[in-house]
Specification:
Structural class: alpha/beta
Bound molecules: ligand PMT
CATH class of the largest domain: Alpha Beta
Number of domains: 2
Largest sheet: 8 strands, mixed
Strand content: 15-25%
């Protein structure tokens, strides 16, 4: 999810730097847009370093020689690309411009051009805040459906006491997440996700692997973070960048994945195993590169079934497996659901073209002990959310049955 953060020219502009971090921790990508006045208070470099993206200022064309500043001309598509716009701090001036539809810099133009939800967090001197013109402008914006995060009261930078201090960053984050429609239904949970393939060495340069890209597992990790969970991501080798706020353990082999899962299991309340773990490993990998000569035979032995081991030790956890099947998909998945003591299994019929391994898309059936739900072909991101919906439902069912046992 991508949010544009508009920073305007007030002393509270420095607080927007922390806001970048807090939103990133929730898995949100940030595009900072600064007004000319904001740059008098804090430099674009700070936001470029924090957000990892060039900052959009009011500069058109020639200013883009600065590596930290992007030309607004190149970013005219921002209005369509963002999922929300948050303006923090918002000065009385920008609020007036928003209310009156002025579009004389990049931020005000973006405000008019975007159809994404907008969150405005004002900060100003108490008299400016209480001025009838400011209040009328705010009423106009509220009536048009824009979210206003009311400022706090207290000592203001101008030396006066009263309303006008930028609301706490956590309050602004909540308003942004609400605007994004982000659910926080996994807050308090620690979700362990396994992702990607494993590699079983044959010799120092060759291995047995599979076509898993890690995309399904990484989507699950990111979706769980967005929904408020802590995430432990145990990843086989992939070309993907893990979400910055997940605890990430990189592994290569099935044995390493097993050891990492077991080492972190105590912390997890939910386990989702999307990894494509090798079922066999080479009994004795060669210490030197094997030379090419005649036919050769590799002796394989089964790896530990990590999911079955987790199922056997699951305690109060919710444990979800994936099943990649090419035939008798439903029957095989049900067998795994039962034999590995799982709460649910996500069936991936990988014989279908365009989904599953190394694709952006997937189509699955989520099987539980009480029924099944089909998720037709969609993005892995959407599939991840549907799997997490199933987790939330399972948790609620478990809570209900514990309560009815007690009463
Ligand atoms: O990574 P992508 O390119 O996005 O592709 C996603 C995916 C197709 C890999 C994913 O959606 C998927 O189906 N993952 C499970 C693949 C798999 O190994 O399925 P399986 O039926 O062989 O294994 C069943 C379950 O047991 C899986 O949860 C697996 O993680 C687990 N397992 C398997 C073997 C083993 N030794 N230990 C395990 O824990």
């Amino acid at each position: 999810m991508k949010v544009a953060l508009g920073v305007t020219g007030g002393i509270a502009a420095y607080k927007a730097a922390e806001l970048v971090r807090l939103l990133q921790d929730r898995g949100v990508r940030i595009q900072v847009v600064m007004t000319r006045a904001a740059q008098e208070f804090i430099r674009p470099l700070t936001f470029a370093a924090l957000s990892g993206e060039k900052v959009i200022t009011d500069l058109f064309g020639s200013g883009a020689e600065d590596p930290n500043i992007a030309s607004a001309v190149e970013h005219i598509a921002v209005a369509q690309a963002i999922d929300a716009l948050v303006v923090a701090p918002a000065t009385a001036d920008v609020i007036a411009k928003f209310a009156h539809g002025e579009a004389n810099d990049f931020l005000t133009t973006l405000f008019l051009a975007t159809t994404a939800p907008v969150v405005i967090a004002p900060a100003m001197n108490v008299n400016m805040w209480e001025n009838a013109a400011t209040q009328a402008n705010l009423q106009t914006l509220k009536a048009r459906g824009y979210a206003i995060v009311e400022p706090d009261s207290g000592y203001l930078a101008c030396g006066m006491v009263g309303a006008g201090r930028l609301a706490a960053n956590e309050t602004i984050v909540k308003a942004v997440l609400k605007a994004l429609g982000a659910r926080q239904d996994l807050a308090g949970e620690t979700v362990m996700v396994t992702a990607g393939p494993t590699r079983e060495p044959i010799d120092p340069v060759r291995y047995i692997g599979n076509r898993s890209s890690g995309k399904m597992g990484y989507a699950l990790a990111e979706a769980a973070l967005r929904r408020g969970a802590k995430v432990i991501l145990i990843s086989g080798p992939t070309a993907l960048t893990p979400p910055s706020s997940a605890e990430v353990v990189q592994v290569q082999t099935a044995q390493q994945m097993r050891d990492a899962v077991m080492a972190h299991l105590d912390h997890a309340t939910i386990v989702i195993k999307a990894a494509a773990v090798a079922d066999f490993t080479v009994r004795a990998a060669a210490a030197e590169k094997i030379k090419r000569k005649g036919p050769m035979t590799l002796e394989l032995e089964p790896t530990t079934d990590i999911l079955a081991e987790v199922g056997a030790k699951k305690g109060g956890r919710i444990v979800i497996g994936f099943a990649a099947e090419t035939s008798d998909a439903l029957a095989n998945a049900r067998k795994k659901l039962e034999s590995k003591s799982l709460d649910a299994i996500v069936l991936n019929d990988v014989s279908q073209p365009g989904i599953g391994f190394d694709s952006e898309r997937n189509a699955v059936t989520i099987l539980t002990h009480s029924g099944s739900e089909t998720v037709p072909e969609t993005s892995k991101w959407e599939v991840a959310h549907r799997v997490l919906d199933a987790v939330v439902k399972l948790k609620a069912e478990r809570k209900k049955s514990t309560q009815s046992l007690r009463s």
